[in-house]
Amino acid sequence: MLPIEVQIERAQRLVRMLENDAPLLTIRVAELTPEHQQSAKSHAAMITACAKAELQRLTEAATPQRQKAAKLAS
To answer: Is 43 exposed, middle or buried (0-12, 13-18, 19+ CB in 10 A)?
Structure first.
C-alpha cells in the first residue's frame, strides 16, 4: 500500500485534472444529443464528487498521523 501522503497527492492531482477538463468536456460532447451530453456531464460530475470525497477521507485519515509526527519531531 502506498503511503498516505502519496495517496493524497494522487487524489489532488486527479481532482485538478477533472476540474480542468470540465470546459473541454463541453466541447467534446457538443455533437452528441442533449440526452447524451447530460449523461456524460453528470457522469463526469459524479466522478469528480467521488474523487473529492476520497481526497477528504484521505486528508482526515492523515491528520492523526501528521499530529503524531509533529509531536515526535518536537
So the answer is: exposed
3-state secondary structure of 29: coil
Closest CA to 47 of 24, 17, 27, 26: 17
Give the separation between CA 44 and CA 32, rounded to whole angstroms. Answer: 15
Q: How many residues does the chain have?
A: 74
Sign of the C-alpha dihedral computed for residues 6, 52, 33 and 27 taken in this order: negative
What integer pLDDT is reported at residue 19 of this predicted model? Answer: 97
Task: For the chain, give every domain's residue range.
Answer: 4-73
Neighbours of 26 (CB within 10 A): 13
Burial of 29 (0-12, 13-18, 19+ CB in 10 A): middle
pTM, 2 dp: 0.81
